Amino acid sequence: MNKILVIDYGMGNLKSVKRALEECGANAIVSSDTNEIKNVSAIILPGVGAFADGMRNLTNLGWTEALLEVKSKGMPLLGICLGMQLLSEKGEESGITKGLGLIPGKTEKLKPRHYERIPHVGWNEIVIKKKNAIFDDIPNNADYYFVHSFCLQPKNEDDILATTPYCGQFTSMVCNNNIYGVQFHPEKSQKYGFQLLKNFLRLN
Amino acid sequence: MLKIRIIPTLLWKDFGLVKGVGFDSWRRVGSVLPSIKVYNLREVDELILMDISATEENREPDYESIAEFSEECFVPFTVGGGIKNLDHIKQILRSGADKISINTAAYEKPRLIKEASERYGSQCIVVSIDVKRELDGNYYCYSHRGTTCTGKTVVEWVQLMEEMGAGEILVTSIERDGTLKGYDLELIKLVSTNVSIPVIASGGAGNYLDMHDAILKGNASAVAAASMFHFTEQTPLEAKYYLRESGIPVRNSNTANT
């Protein structure tokens, strides 16, 4: 059975991520200890909350260096929601905060157009921009559950896996080698959310 | 395109689910866990669970039960009732809720909304308001489960709440609650035109047309309903079919005939 680590850095709802992974057949452990890396085959960085708090907690726990190592080792890492945003180089939420720097680009506030409300809350589709094994058995334009006000703007178009039509369009999925990020919540997105998690578990 | 959400509301009191009329005359309508499981199977867009006795009994949210419920809830889950401070919010989120809903405590300490949204992000802070129209013709907010007039008009209050960082407003008409007579469209519209955050319409839904009107006439981003799903044959899935026929964007459900 796949053993997978959900990083606990004090930011929000880890339980539903763990439960969803278990439903997908994974053996999920929740821990804040960087030493657990050697016991698992993939890592999930979940999270809700503020960018600066998230980075501070990750740094205090030693995760900023540990995740750089994860990247160079090639182990699959999936950032969810705030977890995706933290992959960027910097966040522009109440001042500028340095991010993990695993995906070139920055995190900024969504810019609403006419009648669009922020936060972006609810079900919206993802438009697939690039082929990837993480999309196996997932149709284009499948709906996922979003709840956020910020998004990761990648520097390289090549890192964009999918976009979502809101505030013009924003990047809802990124991938740079073994580093993945999703702005939506696969753990709350039912059938296609679970499919995406299963695909992620199969990556290595 | 962002879809309109249809949200069953579960009112939780003394170990079971209840539903009343005008925030009173509660009837038992089942147990929490089986209901969550059913709505889960039916792939509803979102669920709201309100612990309506917590504030009354002046106790903290029941984290253990919330954790037990969220274990079974694979749809987005908003939990409210009895939340008074940042620690309560932290514990509810850690118990598995995706969003928390605050009502009474916001009147006692509006800055709680600011502190909460700074700490946990606006996106998980729902401000719930219970509203009644008074003889002067204005809509006023009520606290303590609709029993105490706060003296705040709806417009001043929702604007302040948005400024403090609320991520959504759940607006319930006390007079329409449980009547199945339709949402108070004037109230819903008043709220949605005065904030730029999403608005969830609540109180009075009796049929699919009421939902249609709350969205198109009231500009709601989501429609919540309880009695309509508890006491009639109507279902969230059929509501979607109806709304889709009217050209309103709804989420494709992945399961058939549920």
Structure description:
The complex is a heterodimer of chains A (204) and B (258). In chain A, a hairpin with a 5-residue loop joins strand 12 and strand 13. Chain A has an eight-stranded mixed beta sheet. In chain A, strands 6-5-7-11 form a four-stranded mixed beta sheet, covered by helices on one side. In chain A, strands 8-10 form a two-stranded antiparallel sheet. Chain A has five helices and 14 strands. With 204 residues, chain A is of the alpha/beta class. Chain A has a single domain, classed as Class I glutamine amidotransferase (GATase) domain (Rossmann fold). In chain B, helix 7 (185-194) links the parallel strand 10 and strand 11 (199-202). Chain B is α/β, with parallel strands linked by helices and 258 residues long. Chain B is globular, with a radius of gyration of 17 Å. Chain B has one domain (5-245): TIM Barrel. The mean pLDDT of chain B is 94. Chain B has ten helices and twelve strands. Chain B has an eight-stranded parallel beta barrel with strand order 1-4-5-6-7-10-11-12, surrounded by seven helices. The A-B interface holds A 12-16, 19-20, 23, 48-50, 53, 82, 94, 112, 117-125, 143, 145, 147-149, 165-166, 185, 187-188, 190-192 and B 1-5, 43, 45-46, 67, 70-71, 73-77, 93-99, 118-124, 167-168, 196-199, 221-222, 251-252, 254-255.
